[in-house]
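[STRUCTURE TOKENS]
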Amino acid sequence: MNLPENYIPIIIQALVAIGFVAISLLGAHFLGPRQQDSTVNKNKSFECGVESEGDARTPFSIRYFLTAILFVLFDIEIVFFYPYAVNFREFGLEGFLAVSTFVAIFFLGFLYVLKRGALDWDK
């Protein structure tokens, strides 16, 4: 098999990565701690030093999920500003109008969310 010279560094890097993963997994297996009472302590639910209480299926307030969805929505909006911020001079007036329309639509959505009281936790 005759490989071009350009592939040699890629093959070396892949071998080093695979070797690192193999050594890490084997090292963790052989050097890691052994737990004698794995049936009792290992399977207990434990989080942040606080013993668990109640059922895992306790209902959450819908406001929690609504706030999370709104955060993702407006966070994605900010991600779309990055290409415009980097190339705003190349886009010219047409790009400015497109981004202004984009911002206006999201601003109207934000005003709607505020008017509906989705961000008021005291209700």
